[in-house]
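Final report, closing paragraph on structural work. Over the funding period we assembled a curated collection of sequence-structure pairs, and we close with a single example.
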Amino acid sequence: MKNPFASLHILDFTHVYSGPYCTMLFADLGAQVLKIEKPEEGDDSRHYLPFKNGQSGYFMYLNRNKKSMTLNLKSKEGKRIVLYLIKRSDIVVENFSPGTMKKLGLDYKEVKKIRPNIIYASISGFGQSGPLCGKPAFDIVAQAMGGMMSITGFPDRPPVKCGASISDANAGIHAAFAIMAALYNREKTGKGQYIDVAMMDTTVSILENYVMQYTLNGIVPKRNGNEHSASAPFDAYQTKDNYVVIATGSNKLFERLIKVMHCEDLIYDSRFATNILRKKHYAELKPVISSWMGKYSTNDIITWLDKAKVPVAPILSIAELVQHPQLQIRNMMVDVNQPGVGNITMPGFPIHFSEINGSVRTPSPLLGENNEEILKNILHYDEKTVQKLKKEKII
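Its predicted structure, as stored:
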């Protein structure tokens, strides 16, 4: 098994989630990711919960397999060092507010002068153009502006964000995909390029059929709770002891469900003959299913519906998830020995290849852990110079 990006050098100016998630994917596939952080402070996420022995679990997860170097990018010597590092880098990734890298003299226009075929990716809330380009954003802002919150939650309750920071993660994944496309293009043409990824744009891109409901039929989608906007029954139901979800996206699946329920007469009910009709009359169908669900245990329902090949699942807690045998056998929970903390468990690399190895090889770096390694082994600075940089708070 090989690491396809073992010779790829990424200079990482990212922080918090979207950018670090993007570069984590490359690091898991073997890329040499050098994370540039602020001296003394570091990535903001180093100060995010949860903590153990003074270290952030948030940071540990998103920055495994990377190296950390602290640099004051506003200092003359700090900028000189980073320009040298850019010369030997294949990719630059940053997720500062638009304009920040330009103020530092490290925007694509300047970087391209010293590394003409660089691939330079910027991730931001609203992109590098448009009336909102300068607007600061975190995940909840992107979810709100990207339409996600308007369709999440129950119709009689206030809008809510997705539990996880889906706009951040989605932007990071799209950025990684874009960088891969740019790498392929560079292999073919020899040319690098600039990549502009916006959290709002990528959130809109995963709104499924909600935008089309409006553009096709003028319908402004509303919050549906756990219901699907285009299929029924597709919902969460309370059982005798917990909850389950089911998804019957076809007539065949619906027939299987009602046979398990011993409600075969529903097959001949004209209100439920097709998916469109079931969605239209779901308020009449839901009580029938809910009543049946409430009589039996979660385990019984899952056993019966699994046997009938009806998509069904319990709603797992994080504690149940971490211990689940499906994730265990697929190496989706991995143990990492974090210096100063000890053995910790985190999600593994989520893609399985036949010829490529995506894995967690090293823990997240301590702040500036690799300063001397980079300065001495790559820039060939002597000990005296390194100590001078520390004293002047350049590193």
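The chain has 17 helices and 13 strands. The chain has a mean pLDDT of 97. We thank the funder for supporting this effort.
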